[in-house]
Specification:
Blueprint (H helix, E strand, L loop, with lengths): L9 H8 L8 H12 L7 H15 L6 E7 L2 H18 L2 E7 L1 H14 L6 E5 L3 H7 L5 H6 L31 E13 H4 L2 H11 L5 E2 L2 H11 L25 H8 L2 H5 L18 E2 L5 E3 L11 H17 L9 H4 L10 E6 L3 H4 L15 E4 L16 E7 L6 H13 L3 H11 L5 H4 L2 H6 L6 H6 L16 H17 L4 H22 L15 H6 L17 E2 L1 H8 L1
Parallel strand pairs: 1-2, 1-3
Antiparallel strand pairs: 3-10, 4-8, 4-9, 4-10, 5-11, 6-7
Length: about 575
């Protein structure tokens, strides 16, 4: 099977399709299928044409309408903007503009639309991290009711919601679906498989630490491996003689510093309660909810865990590893700047690496690729910290999802909904997944082309085909106002990173500020009977003595290091 992962350019697609409403129809669809899709689809050609014909017919009332949608800038959305949007315009006659901006800017635009009621965009690809916000404020259309009502005539009969692997992430406690997943990527452990399997390296590690070098199961082993590789001459194994580091991270005081922690670093350490897809009643933000899903506190004195011993341990270890085992320039980097660094060939492992950077790490000719196109690296589940218990969340999964605001006029929302379904349709999803490597459909993950490509993707396909993936999830419904609360994280964690505050002081400040926001929401009553209802403060020891989160400090935060063979791990997934 030929795998044409490089997409045709937007210009050539436009030329092939004679872009414009005057030409909209099945011939333009066929030209698109020939040029762009081929057999990279879970539908056969007849099925693809039938799905395209449905879009053509459903779009007729909106022909000539100019629609604007927005998403963050990642490879998947660049492909949608440059290739799929022009194709959609050519096929349906709807003039679609897909803007690409920073993730923080997307949230800001969405927040402005929520506050002003002004229709800035007709649809947003907005992280499912805002599910608690959308469910409580009821300013986003819940898609369950939309598809049965005003959106019924523009809902694809082949949509197949159950095929979306992240559908639970976009479902509120009321059982309603509020968003439609468009792309997903996980944070996983990344390591140099070639170095870890080198005999001299293995012998040297075992001689020093007394156990086998392998994928770390716990943070103790991660720390030992980080120490072992930092400053090590790896020239005998094809690596650099100098400048090798055992950890990669970032520390700039920037919005992305907050994501580093809210995106499950804390739960990986063992902060919060057990539960899938998020800890309950205390989640990975340290926010506790009552049985009615109302947030009741963030600090230990109210039953939260944002400032408990597990949280302090999480931040303390991150700072220690950043200072000891990481390139010095990483302290001034953001998420997007740090992501591609492991592919430069001097990093031995990274605890928390987003699979969105897979495309950059499989580029031919980079120091981490073999000549035959297979990677010298692999990805595996991230290790867990000393406070972690079985059944706790162990990683984050980003699920950028289509969101329709109630402030968008019905006809514009209907036209935008057609585009949201087009770019996630079974016709295009396999090809889109090959370009961006951000899986959203089970049928796509199981497509034979990914069985063929799997050896070149370092464990990505195996992970997404494994039952393990359910332990990776986005922010859950405990967070009642993501835009307001998220900005508190990077500012306070930044104080700890810079040394202006100790981790304990920074987290005490963070939980207090989170509670101020929760109290304001409670007073305003804007979220009705599902908004915050704060607990009274009491002696923190009462909460620490009770089962579950929050937790008291352990006597030993560095138990024996534990590792597992990567090849045995993969076998267990299969």
């Amino acid at each position: 099977m030929k795998l044409p992962f490089k997409s045709t350019t937007a210009m050539s697609v436009a030329l092939m399709l004679l872009t414009g409403p005057a030409f909209a129809g099945i011939e333009e669809a066929k030209a698109f299928l020939d040029a762009e899709i081929g057999d990279l689809s879970t539908l056969d050609r007849a099925g693809q044409e039938a799905e395209m014909q449905w879009f053509i017919d459903a779009a007729k009332p909106y022909a000539g309408m100019e629609i604007k949608v927005v998403s963050e800038t990642i490879d998947t959305h660049s492909y949608e903007s440059k290739v799929l949007a022009p194709a959609f315009t050519a096929i349906t006659g709807i003039k679609l503009t897909h803007d690409l901006i920073g993730e923080g800017d997307v949230v800001e635009k969405l927040q402005t639309q929520m506050q002003s009621g002004e229709n800035i965009y007709d649809a947003y690809v907005n992280d499912s991290d805002l599910i608690g916000t959308h469910w409580r404020y009821q300013q986003a259309r819940n898609l369950t009711d939309w598809m049965a009502g005003e959106g019924a005539s523009v809902t694809n009969p082949g949509l197949d919601l159950q095929d979306y692997i992240g559908i639970s992430f976009v479902t509120g406690p009321d059982g309603k679906v509020y968003q439609l997943p468009d792309q997903q990527f996980a944070n996983l452990y990344w390591f140099r498989y070639d170095w870890f399997n080198d005999q001299k390296t293995k012998d040297d590690f075992k001689a020093k630490y007394g156990y086998d070098l392998g994928v770390p199961v716990n943070w103790s082993a991660y720390e030992d491996i980080a120490e072992f590789f930092t400053g090590r001459d790896m020239s005998y194994a094809g690596g650099p003689a100098t400048g090798v580091y055992g950890n990669m991270d970032y520390g700039k005081k920037d919005p992305s510093l907050g994501w580093r922690y809210t995106d499950a670093w804390m739960s990986m350490a063992g902060m919060g309660d057990v539960g899938e897809p998020n800890g309950l009643p205390v989640d990975e933000w340290g926010i506790r909810v009552n049985e009615q899903s109302q947030p009741v506190g963030s600090c230990v004195a109210r039953g939260g865990s944002t400032n408990d011993a597990a949280a302090v341990y999480a931040v303390t270890k991150a700072i220690e590893w950043l200072q000891k085992y990481t390139p010095p320039e990483a302290q001034g980097m953001t998420f997007s700047e740090a992501g591609p660094v492991p592919a430069q060939g001097a990093i031995a492992q990274q605890m928390f690496w987003y699979t969105a950077f897979t495309a950059a790490s499989v580029a031919p000719g980079t120091p981490v690729m073999n000549e035959d196109g297979t990677p010298k690296w692999r990805m595996a589940p991230s290790p867990h910290g000393a406070y972690w218990q079985n059944g706790q969340k162990i990683g984050y999964q980003d699920a950028g999802s289509w969101t329709l605001m109630k402030s968008t006029p019905v006809d514009r929302a209907q036209a935008a909904w057609l585009y949201a379904q087009f770019v996630t349709s079974k016709t295009v999803d396999v090809k889109k997944a090959h370009v961006g490597l951000t899986f959203i459909r089970e049928s796509t993950i199981q497509h034979p082309s990914f069985t063929e490509r799997a050896p070149k993707l370092g464990g990505l396909v195996e992970f997404y085909r494994s039952p393990a993936r359910v332990q990776w999830s986005p922010t859950g419904t405990n967070v009642p106002d993501y835009p307001k609360l998220a900005q508190l994280w990077w500012q306070n964690i930044g104080d700890a990173m810079s040394g202006a505050k100790t981790p304990q002081e920074a987290l005490d400040s963070l939980c207090a500020e989170q509670e101020k926001v929760l109290e304001r929401l409670e007073r305003a009553g804007v979220q009705g009977d599902i908004g915050p209802k704060m607990n009274e403060e009491k002696d923190p020891q009462e909460w620490l003595d009770a089962p579950g989160a929050p937790v008291a400090k352990l006597e030993n935060e560095k138990p024996q290091g534990e590792t597992v063979s990567y090849d045995e791990l993969i076998k267990s997934w299969q």
